[in-house]
Amino acid sequence: MKKILIANRGEIALRIMKTAKNMGIATVAIYSEADRDAPHVKFADQAVCIGPPPSNESYLLGNNIIKIAKELDVNAIHPGYGFLSENADFAEKVEESGMIFIGPKSHAIRVMGSKLAAKDTVKAYDIPMVPGTDEAITDVKAAKNIAKEIGFPILIKASAGGGGKGMRIVENEKEFEEQMKRAISEAENAFGDGSVFIEKFVTSPRHIEIQVLADKYGNTVHLFERDCSIQRRHQKVVEEAPSAVLTPTLREQMGAAAVKVAKSCDYVGAGTVEFLLDENLNFYFLEMNTRLQVEHPVTELITGLDLVEQQIHIANGQKLAFVQEDLKITGHAFELRVYAEDPLNNFMPSVGKLEVYSPPSAKNIRVDDGFTEGMQVPIHYDPMLSKLIVYGKTRNEAMQLMLEAISNYNVEGVSTTLPFGKYVFKHEAFRSGNFDTNFVKHHYSEEKIQANNEEEAKVAALIALKQYLKDSGVLRLPK
Fold this sequence. Notes:
This protein is α+β, with helices and mostly antiparallel strands. Helices cover 36% and strands 24% of the residues. The chain contains 16 helices and 22 strands. It has helices spanning 10-22, 39-43, 62-71, 88-96, 106-113, 115-122, 140-150, 176-191, 248-264, 296-303, 307-315, 395-407, 418-426, 428-432, 439-443, 446-472, and strands at residues 3-6, 26-32, 46-51, 76-78, 100-101, 154-158, 167-170, 196-200, 206-214, 220-232, 235-241, 269-277, 283-289, 332-339, 341-342, 348-349, 352-353, 356-358, 365-369, 376-377, 384-392, 410-412. Strands 13-12-9-10-11-14-21-19 form an 8-stranded antiparallel β-sheet, with helices on both faces. It has a 5-stranded parallel β-sheet with strand order 3-2-1-4-5. A hairpin with a 2-residue loop joins strand 10 and strand 11 (235-241). Helix 4 runs antiparallel to helix 5 and helix 7 (140-150) crosses helix 8. The radius of gyration is 23 Å and the shape is globular. The mean pLDDT is 92.
């Protein structure tokens, strides 16, 4: 493998390129007109404009991407995450063109791309699953009867869904029909597929996912867990590895279950198996993400492995260089997704120019980003500016470092989730490990973060005043 085209943009494109460069592999960037001056474009050995800003006219044009790759004698295509990363047709076309798709085979993407097909596939492997329907349903009255049998609250989920779209929590029978219609409509608009299924809603769940690696020779290992329970709108904002609540026995059980899920679809490459963990520490299979996850850096920090390097080795036909017994957890890592969003306005996107953009830089602090000062945050894509990742010998040490890193991260011109991150890492529920996916609903409000910010501003002002009075000689402190 001598040249890789990265079919993506922003921080993940740049992150993949850095590993490829370290491995002596040339890189090709694609970019839309909105990303012409982006860091990933400048870092690549070659770069080609793929089209106008809208993703359906640029980053989602699989045939155009393959055509460019062939013209530039590319050996392999890495899809990153999002866009075409879980598009089975694209993976198949890349393989048919004679290039390597750095990811699983199209069969695994297809099977795990449908939540219902995924559940059906893993059934034979005795993996625990949340009670619910085994097939898609669009008949509202029939669905209502099933929901009554399961018992409220229930969750309506788009079969082809992801990112919280086409998902509705229904607390009682009275609101079922309206929420069902909304879920179907949202699923049709987002995925072109209105099929949904119903499952029991676990009221106080933690979102635990297991990273797996599998080579082409039947060797599959897990790289332990990530806890992704701090979410807004069913989307992750804070992730950590390892989880604060998993016992060694439970970790082993969930890891073994994740390996079984991967084997059930002949998985090859890096993937993630997602589980719900209830308040009694029972776990249930949710789905498998057939790609690199946004939060993969926390796993890299606690295992010492470069997951992109592993992906490339596996795609190149190499065997895994280790077995499960070789892997161990060292230390603790957190990731905060720094979105251009306003936490004081229901996390609405905040677009504009980055008047100031100065990320922190220190030992055990890693920032994966795709922006520089002066750049415009485009409205066309996911509003994530960066991933702020920290590592410590213990969970407490890592939490403290994250607070320092947030304080030293300066962004002006757009609102960000940095103040929300500070709120989370200072909150007793998070610090104690006693939290679940309802953290935002139960603990966070715009008024609280506003009050938090005002209190910090008062303290800072008092400290500054005291220092001023001391420097001017008005205030004389006793020796």
